Amino acid sequence: KGNGMIGDIYSMGLALQALEATRKFYAPRKWDCAQAFSVVYAHDYQQPMAIAQVLPALVGRSYLDVAGLDCAATKAMSPSRQLPPSPMLGTHAPIQVHYSITNTLQGKHFHYSTSVTVLSGSTLLQVMEVAAEENPQTFSFQTEQTSWGPYVTSIHGLAASTDDRTFWKFLSAGNALDEGVGIYKPHDGEHIQAIFSTY
Fold first, then answer.
1. Domain with CATH 2.170.130.30 in the chain
2. Which of 151, 108, 155 is nearest to 131 (CA)?
3. Where is the Transcobalamin-like C-terminal domain (predicted)?
4. pLDDT per position as a tens digit, 185-196
5. Is 53 annotated as a binding-site member?
6. Domain spanning 94-198: which CATH class is it, in words?
7. Which of 2, 92, 120, 130 has a 20 to 30 Å separation from 185 between CA atoms?
8. Computed from CA positions of residues 81, 87, 89, 95, in that sequence, does the dihedral angle turn out positive or negative?
9. SS3 134
10. Bridge partners, 143 (sequence order)
11. Alpha-carbon distance 176 to 113, whole Å?
12. Does 112 carry a binding-site annotation?
């Protein structure tokens, strides 16, 4: 992408590791290293898997370097750890998020929209839960837990399928979200679309 993102925020860690590990093969370089790293620096990583994959790139290493680590040399090193200051616990104001689900791909087509009120700082998953509580017949959904967080497998009874190469794609202003539903935090007035899609 033009802004330095490689795939999405979850693929960035491994992509940076791969590109750095093979940098001598790029002449001239076809990717903007500084721009890609600026995306990583600006992102608030929260998922352990994403952090584990991006950390090696941030220290100029890759998973390939693990085979050559000299454990004896690093044994004496004990970095001083300083905990970040605790964030102030402020009050969260209510916000309104518009949420729609659409299927024009399989079976009986449908399109439903709703507006839900949640506290600012709520995740998209929490928005979906409120929508499902208020109208379970329409907005019910299912997730499965993965190492990357909750993954939406079904909405309105329509399940994604690896056999059919289908999945639920989440967009805001026409652009795919670069975070999962358990991390992404919609802003007031935002319209989130869940569209049954194919890959």
1. 94-198
2. 155
3. 121-193
4. 999 999 999 999
5. yes
6. mainly beta
7. 2
8. negative
9. helix
10. 152
11. 18
12. no
Q: Is the pTM of this model over 0.85?
A: no
Q: Pairing relation of β-strands 94-103 and 149-155?
A: unpaired
**Which pair of tokens denotes residue 119?**
């506290």
Does residue 199 have a known ligand-binding role? yes
Residue the block writes with tokens 């993965």: 146
What is the mean pLDDT of the segment spanning 69-80?
54
Average pLDDT, the chain: 83
**pLDDT above 90: percentage of residues in the chain:** 49
In this structure, the dihedral spanned by the alpha carbons of residues 191, 43, 50 and 63, taken in order and rounded to 10 degrees, is 150
150 vs 54, 183, 199, CA distance in Å? 20, 9, 20
Residue 80 has pLDDT above 60, yes or no: no
The reply, when asked if residue 10 is annotated as ligand binding, is no
- Residue bearing tokens 């309105």: 156
Average pLDDT over residues 94-115: 97
Sign of CA dihedral 155, 116, 104, 2: negative
pLDDT of the residue at 53: 78
- β partners of residue 97: 116
